[in-house]
Amino acid sequence: MGESRSSGSGSVSVDIERISFGGKDHLVRTRYGSLSVAVYGDQEKPALITYPDVALNYMSCFQGLFLCPEAASLLLHNFCIYHINPQGHEWGAAPVQSDAPVPSVDDLADQVADVLDFFSLGSVMCLGVTAGSYVLTLFATKYQERVIGLMLVSPLCKAPSWSEWFYNKVLLNLLYYYGVRGVVKECLLQRYFSKEVRGNAQSPESDIMQACRTLLNERQGENVWRFLQSVNKQIEETPVLHADNCGRELTIP
Question: Beta strand pairing status for 248-252 and 124-129?
Answer without folding.
Answer: unpaired
